[in-house]
Every structure is written in structure tokens, then in C-alpha cells.
């Protein structure tokens, strides 16, 4: 169902790499509740197809309310779906997978635990011995540049630092897949750009690149970070277009000024604009 | 409990410059005790003054110095008051402990399972609004006149505020924290004990303090009803024997127990929920 909008010779996204996540005909609906909602249902996702390859950085981009976060929650095992198929490593997704790390928009750090204990939470749950736990948290906190804040409580940190703790927390137990739900949306523009660079640096520093699903409504953010961008339609959401981002890595602030960057931005903006004008159903 | 507390020696960072206000707040703390002491002294003086000028009849309201004498007598080797403290304390604390365990456990259960909440709401509403005095005969019927019925009455009285506060506290726990824990691989038990409980603690504590005060109110009422020992029966028989200073000394001891218990709970609260200082305005 994916509309082909790639107007230059389509680059097959590294077909050699195996498919990590595969969603086919995914269907999700919510029961309407509350005053005046009637007793109908709202279709959130319909006919949602998406394949994400191993080690790929894919952004899911779309207007608010299009169901992009819903897909992320389904993949994270936090929500169920009504139809279609969702595979992780070829096996159906049922409930929470211990192989997926999730980063939420509002950090969702445990306020009563120190930064270190937050980072170690996933390891503790997995019964990792204390010494090893400490070693891992130390290393990851150094990676995200927060080693000197290990004993602080989260509320004493700035928003950007908190989100780095949250990223460290989901990386600590070394999941194959990292999903991020608009993680930088609540931050100021400068911090946001800084953390985008940080995220890429952390991702690229890994021994084996993790598969990343990054949900955002910012076109620039999606282009700067991703290998591919999946643009979603309005609700009920499905993937409308897949766009290859052919910017060389490692990316830096110069990447944002590259002609290719501007070209993709115009292209994505056009798709979103068309989508907005397709009659309100 | 299962909550990690942060070491007291927290190095302050450049992230939040809080230094300047520190000496001020220390002064404010100190202030509190000064004002408190002056207030108590003033209260005692007015009391004493009213007694000596005959404004208040010492037969009905014993002057403070006589109560002190009665206290000293009561706690002396052959005094009767000292022997009443332990039985009462034992009943009160036993009942309060039972109420705490049950209240928090059931509160978490009802607070986190919506079906249970909806199912039991009318019944729970009925019982929580029922006067404890109306239930005394029922408790006597079930548990007899001995220790058990008194402890049961105390537990019942303390249970409701603890249970209701816990239920609401659990309902108020941010869903995203539970989601985050689930994505980290946490199972049900871990989420209950390590996420929901600590997140709810700040709102459970007011229930515990209210429960403690209900516990000792109910205890005295239960002891008035009939007991061989205990502060309640001591106060009542002192009044019946027209030993008014002894009666007041019993009341003062009860008051001191109440204040002490509250201080202990406040101390525990500060330790357990210290992490939220600076997040909220408390």
C-alpha cells in the first residue's frame, strides 16, 4: 500500500541486512469513551505496513494524532492490536519484549532513585550481579556524559540531562532495538540539536548498531537522524511514503546545511501538505 | 521498606544554586522551636493563673503543677499509672500495625485493579462511614471482652484512613512509570513493590498518621468499655473515684503518646519520601 514518492532512482535500503521488525496490515482501534463519544470506535491504525532492517535508524514522522506513538507502544508491548501481524526477529510480538528499550517523551525516570539506580533498573530486574551492574552503569553514564551526576536524583537535573539518563537506562541492558517516542520534543531547540548529535554518537559508538525506531513530528529531526523516514497519513494512520536519507555519516551540524537535506525537507513537506489537503473524512 | 533513600551528604551542583537560602531556612527551623516553647509556656501560665485566681475551680481543672505531681506519683515504684502505659501501648500499636499491613496491601490491590474498585465501592463506602461505636457490640460478640476485641477495634478504626489513602495514592501513580518499568522487563511483583509502592508513599503517609490518631482514639473508647488495665480504664476509674489529678495525668500521658507517635511517623516519612523534597512544595 505504500505510495511511491521517491522521485530519484530508488535506493534499496541495504537489502542485505535482515528484517528486524515487520508490521503487516496492522489494525488498531480504540473504543470511544466519555461524554458524547457515542459507542463507536476510532480507528487509529489501518493497513499499517512497515519493515525496519537490522541496524537501521528509521524515523516515523507524521501529524499529531496519526497513530505513530500508538505503533511504538504496540511494538513495545504496552498496547495490543486488533488485526494484522507484527513480527520482531520473525516472531510475533506478544507483550513486552526484553529486547526492546523504550525512551518516553517525559523521561519517565523513577524520581526516588538516583541517576545510577535508574540506569541500573533494567539490570537489577534481570538479576545482574552488583559488581557487573556497577561496571555497566559506570560505562554508560560516561558514554552519555553524566558520570559525575550518578548519585543525583533526577529532579535535580535539567530536561536534557534527564533524557540522557532515560536513554542510558534503556541502553544499559543492551537491547537490540531502541524505540524513542518524541524524546526531544519537550526540550529547547539548542538542547534538542545537541541531543540529536549525542544520540547519533551513542548509536554509532555501539559495537553492533542497534535498530532504532524514532517517533517524531519534526521533519528536520527525522532527516538529520535517519537512514529512512516513514511518513504517516492522518488517522487512521498508515505509512504513506518511505524516504531514503542519503546523507553521509557521521553527521554533524554541516549535514543540516547540505543540499540533500534541503531537498528531502521539501519533499517530505510536500507529502505532509498533500496529506493535509486530502479531504477531511 | 523497599525505598532507596539518598545519602544525606548530597553535594550540591551548579545545576541548582540553593546555597543562599540555606542559612535562612535553618533559622526558620530554630524559630519554630522557640515559638513552640513560648506558646506552651504561655498556655501553662494562663492555666495556672486561672486556677490561682479562682477563675477556674481546681476541683474540676487541676492546676498544671498538681498534674505534674500526680504524674510523678503515678510513675513512682508503687504508682498505678506507669503500669497502664504498656498494655495500652501494646494494644494500640498491635492494632495499628495490623491496620497498616492490611490497609496498604488491600489499598494497593483495590487501587490498582479497577474491577475490584468498582465492585467493592458501595460496600466500602458503607463501612467506612459507619460509626465505630455502633460496631462495638459486634466486636464484643465476635472477639469477647478480652484483648482481641480491643485490638480488633483499634485495627478497624486505623484501617480505613490507611486503606482509603493508599487506594487513592495508588490510583494517582503516574501510569508512565509503570509503563517504563514494564519495558525494562519488570514483572508484577517488582512493579508493585518497587514502583507503585514508592511512588505512592508520599500520599500513603497522611493516611498512616490519621490512622495512628484514630487508633488511639478507638483504643481509649474500647478501654472505657471495660478492661482490667490500660490508660482508658485508669482515666475512667480515676474520675469515678474522684481522683481528678490522676485522671488528668492519664490524659496527659495519652497526649504524649499521640504526639510521640506522630513524631516517629513524621521522621519515617521524611526518611522514606525524602526524595520528593524539592519536587513538591512540601
What this model shows, in words?
The complex is a heterodimer of chains A (about 280) and B (about 280). Chain A has about 280 residues and is an alpha/beta fold. Chain A has 7 helices and 10 strands. In chain A, the strands form 2 sheets. In chain A, strands 6-7-8-3-9-10 form a 6-stranded mixed sheet, sandwiched between helices. Chain A has a 4-stranded antiparallel sheet with strand order 2-1-4-5, with helices on one face. In chain A, a hairpin with a 6-residue loop joins strand 9 (about 230) and strand 10 (about 240-245). The longest helix of chain A is centred in the C-terminal third of the chain and has 19 residues, at about 260-275. The two termini of chain A are about 20 Å apart. Chain B has 2 domains: about 20-60; about 65-275, MetI-like (MetI-like fold, Orthogonal Bundle), CATH 1.10.3720.10. Chain B has 10 helices and no strands. The radius of gyration of chain B is 23 Å and the shape is globular. The interface between A and B is medium-sized, with 34 and 30 residues.
Give a concise summary.
The complex is a heterodimer of chains A (281) and B (282). Chain A is an alpha/beta fold.
What secondary-structure arrangement, pairings included, does this model have?
The complex is a heterodimer of chains A (281) and B (282).
Chain A: E1 19-31, E2 41-53, E3 57-61, H1 68-76, E4 83-88, E5 91-92, E6 100-103, H2 115-125, H3 130-143, H4 159-172, E7 177-181, H5 189-205, E8 211-216, H6 219-225, E9 228-232, E10 239-244, H7 259-277
Parallel strand pairs in A: 3-8, 3-9, 6-7, 7-8
Antiparallel strand pairs in A: 1-2, 1-4, 4-5, 9-10
Chain B: H1 20-52, H2 64-75, H3 82-112, H4 114-128, H5 132-143, H6 147-171, H7 175-183, H8 188-225, H9 231-240, H10 244-272
